[in-house]
# Entry
Amino acid sequence: MRLLIVDDSLVVRDAIQRSVDKGTISDVYRAENGEEAVSIFSREKPEMVTMDLTLPRLDGLGAIRQIRSIAPRTSILVISALNSHKTAMEAIALGACGFLTKPFTQREIAEALDQLAVHASAGQA
Amino acid sequence: MAAETFLPTLTPQSTLAELPTWDVRLPVTARGDDFDEVMRRHPELPGVVVFDASGVRGAISRARFQQVISRPFGGEIVRPRAIGALLEEFFSGRAMILDTSTPVQEALRQSLSRDKSMLYEPILISGNHGKDVRLVGFTDLLRADSRISSLRNQQMQEILATVQEGFLLVDRDHRIASEYSRSVERILGRTDLAHRLLPDLLGEFLGADQAELAFGYLETLFNPNVIEKLVADINPLKSVEVPERDGRPRQHLGFAFRRSTEGREIRRILVRVEDRTREVELSAELEEQERQAGQRVDLAMEMMQVQPDALTDYLTRFLAELAQITRFRTHAATSPRAAVDAMFRILHSLKGEAGVIGLRTFAQRLHRTEDAAASLRETQGLTLQHLDRLDPWLDSLRNLGAEAKDLIARLSALATRNGGAGSSPSGPAEAGPYPTIVASLESLITDLSKRLGKPARFIARWDPEDLPVAYGAVVREALIQLARNSMVHGIETEPERRQLRKPVPATLQFALRRHEAEGQLEVLFQDDGRGLDMNRIRAKARAMFGHEDVDAQVIFEPGFSTAEATTGDAGRGVGLDLVRDKVEGLGGMILVHSEPGVFCAFQLILPLDPEVRS
# Structure
């Protein structure tokens, strides 16, 4: 299973990557804006993505839309501050399968990634 | 007086003192005729108190008297005779005397336990240590009891109506299923919920925006691509405030959602509706109380850390300047602007000085007052009325001054009692033994004890001679911090301790021991409070470090103790990590020992000869 981490903050990217279970996830890709995320995604087609919503160039919602049009079964977890319930639900309607609010603890992110992996393996089956 | 006129003031805790009483008395020598006459003159009187030289002998009731004289020859026997004799013969069984502090319901229970023939007799109530004896009619007692019972009932209903939860199910179309908890109707103040659309229903009292969010969230939950656990964070109805409506007060509601699946299909959503009004209001109230107590604690802490002379000087000047400001305020009529300018200058200089000597609370409050004065200076066409805006701030400064003065008086009283000038060793680090460490701690504990409502006593085994001068400052700071933590977090409130059958007051112990052979000095602080809650500590460790494999010593890790502080006691004192740093800086160490519910102890070990430390 492979994971693409999309966040414009280096600290957050590192925090997410630290919690990755190396037994389940073999490769991790990282992107710091929406355009980069879409370009890495089209090249590598990872099964899982964590997506920030406020991103430079192309925002998170736009990136989710494009990723889902490339591979509709991708498991996408939004990791973002909850600025608006409406945006959060829009992200879900576009195809994200969960939402983890920032700030998160290491335990929360690790559990969320576990569930995302279960979701992804069910989706591939 | 009619019973109804007093009834509205009754509460479930009411005592006999609140009932209407009668104090018409007759001596034992009065005759039956006299009694009859009194009864005729006061038709509402239930009876009279009978007394002799030694005091109250008993009571005769109207009902009983009527009963006796209606017997054959009753009148002839009773009317001419002295009522003292009648008391013995016809009104047997001593009148019941209850203290005025007896609760109404208890009084009724006792009066119902009287002999059957006495059942409807009035009862005597005695107040003022038995000097004042009066009558209470039995019917008044009954009426009061019935009123109290209905009040109790009402309160119970109110509690039932405010603390509650209920469940309902919604289908794929967001329609409410016909089976739902009746309590949901009570909580929402709506009936006939079956088959209604949940978002529409919520929209009626939460508004269209919330209705739309509820709709969106239900759609999210019915979306099979969504991981249920990973959308709990975005539940828009987790805690919502419902404004006043249809004569119902403001409410705080909480909605939680859970999928109900059949196979892989999400068939319905179970919704838990909870009325959290009381909970939310209580916690807001508690926060406010905590905040106020916290501010007073801040002031005491600050004052103890300021050089005593500087503190006294500052306060003297503060009070004098405040009096000056009051004079400007009083005579502002001639030139409001000049008065404001003068007040502003004084406030500004007082603020600067407070900052320099470290009186943060003073500095902050002066700063806000100065702000208010500054905005007045910019006001065009300043009049006397404008100056009213300054008054609340000036009042608050006066209160602060009074409180500080009171604290200083207590601090110096303690300093004198605990050795006073000259008797403790004074080196450069402890310049002026006022207040000594023990005095500071005692005054801190006394003060916190009062303000937090946690009775505590203080035991010190402490010979100041044993403490090297070089350690004075660190040991003082450490113990003040530990004692404060203990009083705020460790020691339970008085009712809690009573419930746990722990002794009241709580005990805080300080000890200083020299271990010459080991070359060590030991400073010990122990309380008999809650002890450390290892579950909470582990939970915090998990949040901070991602694992919970820690022991109690973890509380000295940077940020660990102050993380606690950000919730309720923000910004007070230093964290335990700083205490440890300072102790370690002296070549020592600090250890914590605790047993949940029993004690928490801190042990500071320092090298006896400060010169030896590396």
About this structure: Chain B is about 45% helix and 15% strand. Chain B touches chain A at residues 212-213, 216-217, 219-220, 223, 225-227, 229-231, 233-234, 236, 542-543, 545-546 (CB under 8 Å).
